[in-house]
Specification:
Blueprint: H1 2-42, H2 48-87
Length: 88
């Protein structure tokens, strides 16, 4: 029983570590997005097609990031449910 409690604590630690790391990555990406946006606003030489491509790239990146976070959260939930089922 002690090993189950230890395993659950480890998973909680991993989840917290992942969440903190992910949030730091999101902050970095958002800062980069603001810099790219500022660059595009000042880049008169960049055609509209180029700006549209960069905007699409940012949207795709955000969507992929959100899907990844959702997937990881769902899998952490499955592991948590597994440990709760074993402890009952």
């Amino acid at each position: 029983m002690e090993s189950m409690r230890f395993a659950k604590q480890m998973m909680d630690f991993y989840k917290t570590t992942f969440d903190n790391s992910f949030n730091a990555m999101v902050m970095l990406q958002e800062q980069t997005e603001r810099m790219v946006s500022s660059f595009m606003d000042q880049a008169n030489w960049l055609p509209d097609e180029g700006k549209n491509i960069l905007n699409e790239w940012v949207r795709t990146y955000k969507k992929g990031r959100e899907e990844f976070k959702t997937s990881v959260d769902e899998n952490f939930k499955k592991v948590q449910d597994y440990f709760e089922g074993l402890s009952k």
